[in-house]
Amino acid sequence: MMESNPFQELLAQQGIMPMEAMAWTKQNARSILIGIPKEHAKYENRIALSPHAVQLLVANGHEVLVEKSAGERSGFSDADYLLAGASVTEDLSQVWQSPLVIKISPPSEKEIDLMKVGNCLISCASYHHLTVEIIDKLIQKKILAIGLEYAEDNGGGFPFVKIMAEIAGQLVLPIASEILRKEHQPGVLLGNVTGVPPCKMVLLGSGQVVEQAARAAWHAGIQVQVFDKDIYKLQRLKQSLGFPLITQVIDSENLPKALQEAQVIVGALRSDNGITPCIVTEEMVSKLKEGTLIMDVCIDQGGCFETSFTTNLGNPTFTKHGVIHYCVPNIPSQVSQTASLSISNLITSFLLKAGKTGGVEEMLWQGKSFMKGVYAYKGYITHPMIGKLFHKAVKDIQLLLLSKS
């Protein structure tokens, strides 16, 4: 285990000591030193590993190094991590030089400079945070970089995207209610009040965000219409929800009319190529009722409203053509502890498998679904989406791993 530090000594004076790791006996297993840096993005409140996850990893022979106060915005103290068996340090370079670094937001150029050549990084890889300079740094340092959004499960789904979408979908209604109560003059209450016509909501898309938002809206008595390009997805959504739902195709001439009658419009379309198609033009927005609320939940992929641009949790809304826009890319960060626990569950499963199979690279070879999340490997870009966005040549990750073995 790592040497004691001042935080451990402080706990020791109080008669509290962190847990010791269990003996690591499996022949092909490998202990991994994992670094968890603090998120320095102002409105990123999540952390990649919870203290409970750290305790499990330490019990399985791994070492975890956490930057001081990294978990505070998620409700986890340094003492929580120390009691779980982690080491806590103020030395940022020590954290970033760990063989595996895990964080939520993509790294900055300065953070990549702190990494050792050939080390591993797991983080989000949203294009609105990445830059050509960051990509070039990852290539230069020959970093093995895994994008959480691109990693797949055994069924071909995207577990990180799905769980964050589930959280965002559940937040749509309370966020919309708060905005319309405070910013719409006169104030509007979403819901079905006796003697008052129900509010109308239009949902663009048919994934997890829409499913959660539609379920909450139906229970609140809100009239909901769902638009998507894919009839099969709309059928799946109706079957999953199990209650009557108005569904239409996006190309229908009914879309402009539905938008003009709605109090809330939620854009939750995701694209396989990383950039959401613009569905609602500025002209269509200009014809909406004054005070209508647009929530562009897919703003991290560019958004599906022509008038959208990225906002943040500090200043989440702006008004254009009399229409309120909410375009926050990291909505789950508002419930940072819940979101952190969800992310932690996903990552911990991967790390335990990686340890048992001999390390991250060996795990990628044996767990090919997670391999699809790799976007940079040993000086090459390996994900087609990243290559297309930043005009980089793309190498096949399987061939690169095979040549190494």
Rg is: 23 Å
Residues in helix, %: 25-40%
Poorly predicted regions are 18-27
Number of strands: 15
What share of residues are in beta strands?
5-15%
- The chain-level mean pLDDT equals 88
Strand order of the largest sheet: 3-2-1-4-5-6-14-15
> Shape, please?
globular
Most strands sheet: 8 strands, mixed
Number of helices: 16
**Structural class, from secondary structure content?**
alpha/beta
Distance from N terminus to C terminus (CA atoms, Å) equals 30 Å
Question: Would you kindly provide a written description of the structure presented here, covering whatever features stand out?
Answer:
The structure is a single chain. By secondary structure, the chain is of the alpha/beta class. 37% of the residues lie in helices and 15% in strands. The protein has helices at 6-13, 51-59, 78-83, 92-96, 109-114, 132-140, 159-182, 208-219, 231-241, 254-261, 282-286, 336-357, 360-366, 368-371, 384-389, 397-404; strands at residues 33-36, 63-67, 87-89, 100-102, 120-123, 144-147, 200-204, 223-228, 246-249, 264-267, 293-296, 317-320, 323-326, 374-377, 380-381. Strands 3-2-1-4-5-6-14-15 form an eight-stranded mixed beta sheet, sandwiched between helices. Helix 6 (132-140) links the parallel strand 5 (120-123) and strand 6. The longest helix has 24 residues, at 159-182. The radius of gyration is 23 Å and the shape is globular. The relative contact order is 0.13. The model is unreliable at 18-27 (pLDDT under 50).
